[in-house]
Amino acid sequence: MKKILKAAESDKVDSRTKAFILTMRHSGLRISDVATLHVDSLNGDRLKLYQAKTKKPVSVKLPDLVVESLRAVEHKNKEFFFWSGKSKTTSITGFWRARIADVFEEAKIEDGHTHRFRDTFAVWWLERGLSLENVSRLLGHKSIKVTQKHYDPWVESRQNSLDKDMEKVMQS
């Protein structure tokens, strides 16, 4: 993330792209949801919306840095942060996917993909002790099983806790 954010601050990258990256990283949203993000989804420091893929509601508090960068975005349409509202969702998503690929290239990140921000968001919160249920809610998954399948194996602190519990049982 440090390399990506540093690349996003280079002269080659505009403030909209940096705001887009920060929003993806700190909201856990899919690229299509950020690309078509409604201005009225942001209320204070909270994003509230229904995800396009799952139709699940998501409500997530954002750090001040993200809120400030969203508020500073120059709008092509006053209703959306990153979209004119005229193109198809697949077109604007493709545009942002290519834009972020350029940032990954600038950061020298091999095989970089936008879902990395969602993954980082999930693992970051799980590492800090949020329950799988709450992270699943933040990600807008239809089921906690999806969250378990994709993220539980990557959270070292959860494995360490499991190991400690097992050691206690083995010693008794």
Count of helical regions: 9
Mean pLDDT over the residues: 89
How many β-strand runs? Answer: 3
Strand portion: 5-15%
- The main sheet orders its strands as 1-2-3
**Assigned CATH architecture:** Orthogonal Bundle
Question: What do these coordinates show?
Answer:
The chain has one domain (2-171): hpI Integrase, Chain A (Orthogonal Bundle). 56% of the residues lie in helices and 7% in strands. It has 9 helices and 3 strands; from the N terminus they run H-H-H-E-E-E-H-H-H-H-H-H. It has helices at residues 2-8, 15-27, 31-35, 64-72, 89-106, 115-127, 132-139, 144-151, 156-171, and strands at residues 42-43, 46-50, 57-61. A 3-stranded antiparallel β-sheet has the order 1-2-3. A hairpin with a 2-residue loop joins strand 1 and strand 2. It is globular. The chain starts with a helix and ends with a helix.
